[in-house]
Design goal:
The chain has 2 domains: about 5-215, Alpha-Beta Complex (Spore Coat Polysaccharide Biosynthesis Protein SpsA, Chain A); about 230-285, no CATH class. Helix content is about 40%, strand content about 20%. The protein has helices at about 15-25, 45-50, 70-80, 105-115, 170-175, 190-200, 230-235, 245-255, 260-285; strands spanning about 5-10, 35-40, 60-65, 90-95, 120, 125, 135, 135-140, 145-150, 160, 165-170, 200-205, 210-215. The N and C termini lie far apart (about 70 Å).
Amino acid sequence: MPGPTVYIVLPVHNRRAVTGAFCDCLARQTYTDFVLILVDDGSTDGTAELVAGYPFRKQICRGDGNLWWAGGLRLGMARLAGLHPETDDVVLLVNDDTSFDDGFLQKAVEEIDRIGDPSMLSVPVLFRDSGRKAEGGFVCDWPHFTFRDYARHPEKIDCASTRCLFVRYSDLMRCGRFRPGLLPHYLSDLEFTIRAHRRGVRILPAQDVVCYSTEYSTGMHRLPTGGFISVFRYMLSPRFSANPLHVFMFILLAAPLQWKPICWLRAAYSASVFFLKATILNRLCAHD
């Protein structure tokens, strides 16, 4: 019997070489029944034209440069629905800085078939630059507002990254849509998968599948330099992983009612400490 079709939803923006390396991995796959849905969010470097030249099946849809991650996935999922996939077809939500071996899709299809439904398969990432391994699934610790490793208890996973996440189409439809108007980039994947888990979709770590990436290939994660206004703008950028407005919205959408106040307090404290370090502490160090 033929296996399911794998639909790969890939949002990209102006990373022609990175996206090309991802497509090179796809072109070498032993499992060839897949369709790439490329969401090109206003790239000006010829990314879409490069991808159009690859021999595998593909769909290319375009944004205006303001989709961000959640908007890109939402647009890609809308294009996917228009292709009328079967309920047991498999969807891969993935970042273009991900690489993998030739048997990646074959192993994923076999593993997601074994775990049954409703479920998601969260793929661990090995970072080539740091040597660190990141599990894709996490356990929400709402009283401390942290997301920790599941250790030896994968059954406790209740959220996951969409850096590399497999899910059956029927289960994806059960999860609902991304909310780019509220969470355009960071934390959108955690909110989405928390919602999926609450709707009965299990999130399981992959055992036979792994991918590779680099630690800080996207986003802004480090302490900025400059005056108060420049730091404030930095913190409110969608590319800043701890944007306080998005953290506030994430807590509103995802946290259990009884833990919202403490989570907001912890988030406000963290944002204040970050701001003070980036302004006052930096100035003191500069004077020294």
